[in-house]
Amino acid sequence: MLSKKTKYGIKALVYLAKQENRAPVQISVISQSENISRKFLESILLTLRKNGVLGSKKGKGGGYYLLKDPKNIPMTDVMRLLEGPIAMVPCVSLNFYEKCDDCPDENACAVHKIMLKVRDNTLEIFRNTTLADLSN
Amino acid sequence: MLSKKTKYGIKALVYLAKQENRAPVQISVISQSENISRKFLESILLTLRKNGVLGSKKGKGGGYYLLKDPKNIPMTDVMRLLEGPIAMVPCVSLNFYEKCDDCPDENACAVHKIMLKVRDNTLEIFRNTTLADLSN
DNA sequence: GCATTATCCTATTAAATCGATAGGGTAATA
DNA sequence: TATTACCCTATCGATTTAATAGGATAATGC
């Protein structure tokens, strides 16, 4: 299940991508427009800023803005930042790999086999979908 | 993230599918072989039995066994029984649909758009993968 | 300069879910 | 008729999630 954190993050990013200019947008503007808890959204945007997706400006006329062209922001980046692993099981995760306690042999594991397929497929979609694609 | 419930359930089903005959297998045998908590596995197999995937036999020589040919058990069935919705967001779920509180218009929602793609793709994989495929 | 604005940061919390455990009841078999 | 093994309910600790609170800090415009 997708967390609200990720869901809200994507919505906020799309909102920013739809802005004509790159002028900063206040948290409260996005939060009201997208029906997101202001404080919760605040922490999400902070994460995105700390990881180089967003820039911010303090004081009057401040807010958040995209640092890159939406075309250059693949969903893989967003998902990994906010949601964490894309794979459904740690043992098939590229960026968050973990061995299973129970499995003696990963290659013989049926769960591993099917979830690897799912991950490959999902990954492909997220890789080929950019923020620009979602903003149309 | 895939729950251990589903993970264990798949492993148990594969174990049963690998049996040459359809003789009942005791919970404890599967639990030991697959490194699964006996009691936890018990509740999982019970769910699978109540939903027509497994049959059971009480008393000496009893245990669980598959009711259908592994070829006729698609992973969609297993996933929906144990994990619940296949979609990452309720608003794109076929069997567990729910409207989002925040979204005024589903068709205009970016999250909806991308997650629909992911669901279609994942669903296709689960549909085309049977228990028999995982048991080889 | 100074008041205003809006981000920045830490801590807390209520609720839900997950994984596991406990303990006995019931039915079938040999 | 004793044994075996599934059946059923209840509980519990740990973790995660979503949200909230309260103030510190920095930048802007007048």
TrEMBL record, chains A, B:
SUPFAM superfamilies xref list: Winged helix' DNA-binding domain
PROSITE patterns: HTH_RRF2_1, HTH_RRF2_2
Keywords of the record: DNA-binding
Entries under PANTHER family matching the protein: HTH-TYPE TRANSCRIPTIONAL REGULATOR ISCR, WINGED HELIX-TURN-HELIX TRANSCRIPTIONAL REGULATOR, RRF2 FAMILY
Protein name listed in UniProt: Rrf2 family transcriptional regulator
